[in-house]
Amino acid sequence: MTTTEKTAADWIAAAQDVAAKLAVDAVERDRRNATPYEEVRLLKEAGLVTLLGPPEHGGGGQTWETAYRVTREIARADGSIGQLLGYHYLWAWAARLVATDEQIAAVEELYTRNNFFFGGAVNPRDSDLTVTEDGDELVYNGHKSFSTGSRVSDLTVLEGVLDGTGDHIFAIVPSGQEGIVFHDDWDNIGQRLTESGSVTITDVRVPWASAAGYVDRKFRPLTYNTLNVPAIQLVFTNFYLGIAQGALAAGLEYTRDRTRPWPYGGDDKESATEEWYILDGYGDLQAKLWAAEALTDKAGAAISRVLHAPRADLTPEVRGELAVLIAAAKQRVIETGLEIGTKIFELTGARASASKHGLDRFWRNLRTHSLHDPVAYKRREVGVYALRGELPEPTWYT
């Protein structure tokens, strides 16, 4: 079957195959914390990296709805690799978000034909990179605290402010160049394989013609340009959801195979799978997870329609409603996932806390990345919409 003949179900099945390979040694790889070159190779060989790429260049031509599901499947087995893939999809779409038609065509042909993997040095909480003009070139300089995908990326998305102006300029550059130094200093309790350390940018040159969305050195804004934040917030939501699904599946498997019934409760059972409190606990967690999945899928279908529609058609109202829906999905998934990540220990038993089982990695992964931006502000966005009917204004986090 050729890439263009694959259906969404085929791509999800391909992701499940990769996930099965990742799951075999997920605990050991998390401990080693080594750069995930082999893991990204698996993604490339399965065609998942070019899932959104144009069919005429060998890409899958799939929708964002499928990309979100694929991200989730990978994250079930390994939250770090799910994050890497989800971020890649957003950066691969960056040209479509802000660039001209000619720039979009060039970037999509480049990454699809070469099966390139994206990283990004675009952390809004740091000072912006400085961009200066040098004739027909732009020169980027500065430092970013986070650059997810760093060493495993082929291309890096840069963002900076043109010196003396307030103009933000995005550009896509080769990762492997002297002016980009990745510092390999990501050392957090979770999402350990995401290569999210800091980066220093020194005299990285880009032709003015490659400044995304600029025509005659002037940017032409559209509401569509602001979809980068809702799109990546739903990337977060989907790999969080995958982590939660993986946690529940691991807990269920452990209980079926290893958990012993409690012999001092006065209503003794032959098997832990007959224990009332265990059945009650898993029933509650599964119901909450199904609800979170349904809300996330609703958000995925809604934003996918917009992302694949003509860019000029998007209105601020539709964009705002999408942001609220995604904020609702994100908060539900975080709270459900963190509950699952801790509750499974009560349902699996004391021996499940042994390091060799690695059940703690699910909570660590979700807890680490869910601090990316305060979930309280997502609840507030939903509350303001529900109570006052007000839509959130676009920001770097909304």
From TrEMBL:
List GO molecular-function terms, semicolon-separated: 3-methylbutanoyl-CoA dehydrogenase activity; flavin adenine dinucleotide binding
Keyword Flavoprotein appears in the UniProt entry: yes
Q: Which GO terms describe its biological process?
A: L-leucine catabolic process
InterPro entries named among the record's database cross-references: Acyl-CoA_DH_C, Acyl-CoA_Oxase/DH_mid-dom_sf, AcylCo_DH-like_C, AcylCoA_DH/ox_N, AcylCoA_DH/ox_N_sf, AcylCoA_DH/oxidase_NM_dom_sf
Q: Name one Pfam family in it.
A: Acyl-CoA_dh_2
List residues of the Acyl-CoA dehydrogenase/oxidase N-terminal domain.
18-104
The organism sits in which domain of life?
Bacteria
Which CDD domains does UniProt cross-reference here?
A: DszC
Where do the Acyl-CoA dehydrogenase C-terminal domain residues begin and end?
235-372
UniProt KW keywords: Flavoprotein, Oxidoreductase
Q: Does the keyword Amino-acid biosynthesis apply?
A: no
- Protein name per its UniProtKB record: Acyl-CoA dehydrogenase
| The organism of origin for this protein | Amycolatopsis australiensis
Q: What is the lineage of its organism?
A: Bacteria, Bacillati, Actinomycetota, Actinomycetes, Pseudonocardiales
